[in-house]
Amino acid sequence: MHIQPEVSLKPHNTFGIDVKAQQFVEVHQLSDLQTLLKEQQQNPTPLLILGGGSNVLFTRDFEGLVAKIKLKGIRLLREDDSNVWLEAAAGEVWHDLVMHCVQKGYGGIENLSLIPGTVGAAPMQNIGAYGVEIKQVLETVQAVERSTGVLKVFTNEECKFGYRESVFKNIYKDQFVITGITLKLSKKPTFNTSYGAIQEVLQTNQVKELSIQAISDAVCQIRSSKLPDPAKIGNAGSFFKNPTIPFTQFEQLKQAFPHIVGYPVANSQVKVPAGWLIEQSGWKGKRFGHIGVHSRQALVLVNYGGGEGSQIRQLSADIQQSVLQKFGIAIQPEINII
């Protein structure tokens, strides 16, 4: 490992925020990570674990050590007539893993195509899109405990997955470093095409025979049409979670806002698209100097170049306040703000 002083984090976060890490290191081996954590215990300094940087907003320089996880590897553990068990290291690019599975004919994560970030971040917030969440196919998470350097294995149940939630974001926050995951995927997949515009795109593409490749292509097409490419415009995808509210509150809102959109979920709750709430509050396409709200998707806050993280944080707070005043609904960031 080579620890570097005073490194710009601009190339390491998809918002493209130009802040510095006091120290920076890339971790390519599990043993290096364990060594690093042991040294941290002996000489405690602030430590930030970074994956693809696609779910983080830096608002200041980081006074400590930033460790970028670069653990690599995808391997088949076992298989039977119906399923395969696949292990993927935390530093793999998530979309690359999806493409690997699509090409091999392993079904289960094709709806999660083109989600930015690394494999290690996927279970952290239970990534999901177009009717699928990673918890539906995840068997185990491998993670190193920061305080001991010991590698532990968490079952799906032990991860306590929720909507963009897991134990790694709450009760075990900053206590473990995810090093890999194991997925159970299907050789005889059931196709999920009911969410969003997937069916419409499949018809437009004149797909005659449904396949995981066709679904992945459709999802990529939809995401590319709605979401800006971080390589061109700094962003971290969806900035806010979709809030859930009681059915009774939704019915009251429907009287005042007849066109409000909502999807029934468990326990008499309704999930309301945060993008719709933000758009109806007048934010879509608004630009404020170097930052703004994307013109095609109100969920996405953008850095046009030269913007500061503190400005984006303030914009997000203004949006939250605006939505709360108009609809009485509190929306929360799904981005990690540092």
UniProtKB/TrEMBL annotation:
Domain FAD-binding PCMH-type: 17-188
Catalytic residues, chain numbering: 164, 238 (proton donor), 334
Its EC number(s): 1.3.1.98
Top-level taxon of the source organism: Bacteria
Catalytic activity: UDP-N-acetyl-alpha-D-muramate + NADP(+) = UDP-N-acetyl-3-O-(1-carboxyvinyl)-alpha-D-glucosamine + NADPH + H(+)
Residues annotated as transmembrane: none
Subcellular location(s) of the protein: Cytoplasm
Stored Pfam families: FAD_binding_4 (PF01565), MurB_C (PF02873)
GO biological process: cell division; cell wall organization; peptidoglycan biosynthetic process; regulation of cell shape
Keywords (A to Z) from UniProt: Cell cycle, Cell division, Cell shape, Cell wall biogenesis/degradation, Cytoplasm, FAD, Flavoprotein, NADP, Oxidoreductase, Peptidoglycan synthesis
Cofactor: FAD
Recorded GO CC terms: cytosol
Protein name: UDP-N-acetylenolpyruvoylglucosamine reductase
Organism for this UniProt entry: Microscilla marina ATCC 23134
Gene expressing this chain: murB
